[in-house]
């Protein structure tokens, strides 16, 4: 695996741990200690530690293990500790989906992302959603949970599996997003080019053909 791909994998794991896994930990804490419900949103490290240390055993030791793993970068370790905590403290069994359930879940996620993309007007988010959907296409039906700052690296990662014209459009959109962030309204990109990126994401499916997008690019150039 190339160095940039290794860094991408590590960054994605860290993001997953600090977002969804942390939310799961907070949900367990709130279930066991109602005082945590006074704070909306994600608990801070200090708030989480303070609540956990006031708990009795085995709650304190189990949740301390989970909390410790939230500072790491190994998703499997964090998930295992979350599963153990749910089982021992809440008597809930967290089961990873079987192949059929996983496929149904992935299709549901795909349609939700497309629905969000349909109504999206922000170019940065349009690019983010489209890149996420293209990852699904290139990686045979797998999804990622990625932060916006990883989009340029993801575009580079996807480039070897996409036609040249698609890569050019993605890089052009990325440059526009960067310039728009720096220069505000003075940065311009035609609606046709933005809609092309949106249509690309909305067309995402397994074994997707990019042939029609090649003809659209030629007509637009």
Question: Topology of this structure?
Answer:
Blueprint: H1 3-32, H2 45-53, H3 59-69, H4 75-90, H5 99-119, H6 123-138, H7 151-158, H8 164-183, H9 191-202, H10 211-220
**Overall number of strands:** 0
The H-and-E topology, N to C, reads as HHHHHHHHHH
Radius of gyration: 21 Å
Question: What general form does the structure show?
Answer: elongated
Mean pLDDT: 90
End-to-end separation in angstroms reads 35 Å
Number of domains: 2
Low-confidence stretches: none
Q: Characterize the biggest β-sheet.
A: none
If helices are DSSP runs of H or I spanning 4 or more residues, what is the number of helices? 10
Strand-pairing-aware structural class: mainly alpha
Helix content: 55-70%
- Classify the beta-strand content into a percent band: under 5%
List keywords for this structure.
221 residues; mainly alpha; 2 domains; elongated
Describe this structure in words.
This protein is mostly helical. The protein has 2 domains: 3-90, no CATH class; 99-220, no CATH class. Helix content is 69%, strand content 0%. It has 10 helices and no strands. It has helices spanning 3-32, 45-53, 59-69, 75-90, 99-119, 123-138, 151-158, 164-183, 191-202, 211-220. The longest helix is centred in the first third of the chain and has 30 residues, at 3-32. The two termini are 35 Å apart.
């Amino acid at each position: 695996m190339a160095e940039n791909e290794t860094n991408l994998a590590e960054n994605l794991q860290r993001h997953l741990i600090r977002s969804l896994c942390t939310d799961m930990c907070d949900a367990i804490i709130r279930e066991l200690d109602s005082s945590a419900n006074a704070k909306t949103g994600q608990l801070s490290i200090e708030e989480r530690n303070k609540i956990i240390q006031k708990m009795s055993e085995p709650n304190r030791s189990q949740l301390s293990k989970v909390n410790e793993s939230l500072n790491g970068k190994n998703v499997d370790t964090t998930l295992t500790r979350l599963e153990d905590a749910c089982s021992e403290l809440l008597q809930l069994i967290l089961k990873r989906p079987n192949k059929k359930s996983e496929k149904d879940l992935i299709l549901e996620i795909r349609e939700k992302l497309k629905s969000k993309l349909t109504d999206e007007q922000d170019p940065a988010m349009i690019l983010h959603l489209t890149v996420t959907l293209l990852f699904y296409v290139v990686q045979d039906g797998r999804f990622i949970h990625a932060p916006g700052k990883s989009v340029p690296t993801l575009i580079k990662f996807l480039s070897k599996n996409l036609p040249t014209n698609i890569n050019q459009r993605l890089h052009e959109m990325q440059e526009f997003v960067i310039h728009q962030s720096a220069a505000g309204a003075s940065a311009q990109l035609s609606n046709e080019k933005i809609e092309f990126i949106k249509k690309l994401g909305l067309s995402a499916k397994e074994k997707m053909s990019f042939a029609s997008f090649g003809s659209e690019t030629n007509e637009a150039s």
